[in-house]
Amino acid sequence: MSTLDYLLLDISSFVKTEFNLELQKSQLKMYSRENWQQFCQVNGFEQQAGGIYVPQSFSAYVNAESSFLMPNIFHELYGHGLFIEHSQLGKELVKIVQNVGDGNNYLHDKIDPLIKPLGLCRQNIGNYEGFAVWMEALLCQETGNEKIWQTKKISIPKFYQNLYEHFQDAEKKLTRFGLMSQLGFPKHYCVQEVVSVLKQLYGLDKFANIEFVILYGSKKPESDIDLCVISSNPSTQYFNGWLDLAELHIEDFQKRLDNLDIALTDSMFSGELIYGNRNQFAQFKQKVLDTPITTEAIEYNFAKAQSQRDYFPNYKDNPRLRDLCGSYIDSFGWNAEQLSLGNKLLTLANLKNIYV
Fold it and tell me: How many CB atoms lie within 10 A of CB 303?
């Protein structure tokens, strides 16, 4: 094998270890300077570029005689290749171009973050190129090519320089795991990584107010990370495309506990505590088990279901919130009905075993 082959093996090993990702379809295709010019002319690509990635064929083409060969390979093969193969945003682009759709519209249309919150930019061209230039720089650092990267960075258009700085800032604010998650990559994680992201998002002062963090939901790599946070901060809801967080002020938590709120009891009894005093949390769970079913609790859950029915028409343009609202209508309604029959089921799985 050539020196380049060994280097690419090392890079692939780093990517696997750091991100749990592997290139499965993307291929590297290198051209001499003369053949590169001909290739660009035939396909209408810019000859001055040192490389290009074509999503339709999962191919990274590079000019083998470029003075920035290694950064270009990192940018095209690993930056664009990983994005296209593994990011939800990249997979959507592949779907469009392979069905003879207009990839340019997808890349350049403005994004409404309320409807599509994934990504770090208001256009997918920024997400696509920003990740590639960020990965290019990271792999240059890992392979001792940082000086070459610094030289190249000075010569690239301001658009790319700004994207690199933007992604660097995002990594600091979100952690590396958070940055990858925000771009729609599969989430392979330990609970400490989730806690680290929360510390970054909250800041030390607000995070110090947290009593418990509960991780629940499917916990699949492609799914959102669902968290229930109990704190002395105001109650709030937060969703950024991959982190779905319900924060409850301690008094709100106590009220919901007394009323056997199915959204709360489901997180407590189907999820796991990843931050907070385990003995104290166990006492709260025991309190739920000991709490008698009251008329107030039944009426509370019926009222919750009705309030979601009232909100439902407002979510016609937001599929995620519409589906979420529909699930709340069912779960609170089912829970109220079972409580009225004297059954304390506590989790959505138990309710679905009866109703679905």
Answer: 13
CA 67/CA 73 separation, integer angstroms: 12
d(CA 98, CA 95): 5
Q: How many CB atoms lie within 10 A of CB 7?
A: 16
Q: Which among 13, 241, 51, 14 has a CA at the least distance from the CA of 127?
A: 241
Output the CA–CA distances (angstroms, integers) from residue 241 to 75, 89, 110, 330, 332, in the order listed: 25, 11, 17, 24, 25
Please list, residue by residue across 167-188, b when 16 or more beta carbons sit within 10 angstroms of its beta carbon and e when fewer do.
Answer: beebbeebbbbbbbbbbbbbbe
pLDDT in tens, 263-294: 999 999 999 999 999 999 999 999 999 999 99
Supply the DSSP symbol for 65: T
Using DSSP's 3-state secondary structure scheme, residue 68 falls into coil
Look at strands 59-63 and 210-216 and give their pairing: unpaired
For 117-184, give the DSSP string. --SSSSSHHHHHHHHHHHHHHHHHHHTT-HHHHHHHHHHS-HHHHHHHHHHHHHHHHHHHHHHHHHTT
Residue whose token pair is 């995620």: 320
CA 163 to chain CA mean position, Å:
19
pLDDT band at 60 (very low <50, low <70, confident <90, very high): very high
pTM of the full structure: 0.92
CA distance 160 to 133: 7
Q: Pull the structure tokens for residue 129.
A: 């190129």
- Residues facing residue 225 across a β-bridge: 243
